Amino acid sequence: MSKIIDTFIAPPCHEQIEILYQDESLVLINKPTGLLSLSGKNPQNLDSVHHRLVQQFPGCTLIHRLDFGTSGLMVIARNKAINAALCQQFSQRTVTKVYSALLCGHLADNEGVIDAAIVKDPALFPLMSICAIHGKPARSGYQVIERFYHELEDGTSLPLTRVQLTPETGRTHQLRIHCQQLGHPILGCDLYGGLLLPGTERTPRLMLHASELHFAHPMTEEPIKAHHASPF
């Protein structure tokens, strides 16, 4: 197995984490784009969601992560017992996650499901691969919200589709690689073709936002249905 060497250095993120809700058990946040979920091994990648929040909420832990470029909803546990209870909900897939995204081009179908197993390939790091034999099962649903054209400065029009994405599994890069598999990568996605269409190369961020998170409060078992509108 070849050793993975991560050379990525995150540029400084000046945006603040928005705390949407907090109690003695958990914290619900809106993560800005361009911030790591967890600090990297490289000391230059110290800044992260966890690094910032642990100053304010000592002992807090991440239940799930969002990619560096993805913004939106994350739930953070404030102690080990809450972490275990929330992790169980995620592993049993009783948590509903909904994402907003802009995809390159116009999708033919209004809705559908992408069912394509995903595998880590050390030779291609940091990319993941689709592999029916060695991959872990991965399913994502999509629904078209609108198809439109974005006018560029040079007068050309960029066809885009706004979609709602609902991952049934939680593999690394799942939505990004599944949209590429669909033939319509997420706009601004540097790893899976979202900067290849003419006019997309100057896209300021990955156009992917975690807009809904539904789960049961681990103490009260009350349903929590968090919403945060997409910034794009």
From TrEMBL:
This is RluA family pseudouridine synthase. Keywords: Isomerase. It comes from the Bacteria. Its EC number is 5.4.99.-. It is an enzyme of class 5 (isomerase). GO terms for molecular function: isomerase activity. Residues 26-181 form the Pseudouridine synthase RsuA/RluA-like domain. It comes from Serratia quinivorans. Belongs to the pseudouridine synthase RluA family. It holds the Pfam family PseudoU_synth_2.
